[in-house]
């Protein structure tokens, strides 16, 4: 029986694919944290940009336009969070698939190792049986038995 598992390179490749997928998930989570931090900053900016209670009409209009702009940027930041979460869900699915494919090859490797162990035990037992039989035959030929 072949002692070397023939799919060892495939197993290494599957592990590398899983590691790459895990890295992509970690990157997605970092992007989500960054987007959430941006939402928090934009929200604080919007809260801090109160409309002036007095001043010229031009200043009041400019203030309202600035608040609309901040609200739009807050909406964009919230959309970035949503998009990043969607990307993370997709990458988690890819990671799960990669883990499943790696595990399938690992199970084949485990079965192969078990077959090799069983084969070795059977060969060792056959050798012991042969030695025992040969020893008895030799002893019988010498008249020691």
Multimeric organization: single chain
Order of helices and strands: HH
- Put simply, the count of helices is 2
Largest sheet: none
Level of helix content? over 70%
Q: pLDDT under 50 segments (min length 5)?
A: none
Shape: rod-shaped
Structural class: mainly alpha
Written description of the protein model:
The structure is a single chain. This protein has about 140 residues and is mostly helical. Helices cover about 90% and strands about 0% of the residues. It has helices at about 10-50, 55-140. α1 packs antiparallel against α2.
Question: Main traits of this protein?
Answer:
rod-shaped; 145 residues; 2 helices; mainly alpha
Q: Can I get a quick summary?
A:
The protein has helices spanning 8-48, 57-142. It has 145 residues and is mainly α. The mean pLDDT is 89.
What's the topology here?
Layout: H1 8-48, H2 57-142
Helix pairs in contact: 1-2
């Amino acid at each position: 029986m072949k002692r070397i598992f023939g799919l060892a390179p495939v197993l290494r490749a599957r592990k590398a694919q899983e590691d790459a997928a895990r890295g992509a998930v970690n990157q997605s989570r970092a992007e989500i944290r960054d987007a959430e931090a941006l939402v928090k900053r934009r929200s604080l900016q919007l809260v801090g940009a109160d409309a002036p209670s007095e001043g010229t009409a031009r200043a009041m209009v400019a203030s309202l336009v600035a608040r609309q702009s901040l609200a739009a940027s807050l909406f964009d930041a919230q959309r970035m969070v949503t998009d990043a979460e969607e990307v993370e869900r997709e990458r988690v699915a890819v990671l799960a698939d990669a883990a499943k494919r790696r595990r399938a090859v690992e199970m084949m490797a485990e079965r192969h190792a078990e077959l090799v162990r069983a084969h070795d035990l059977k060969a060792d037992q056959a050798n012991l049986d042969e030695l025992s039989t040969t020893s008895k035959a030799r002893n019988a030929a010498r008249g020691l038995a």
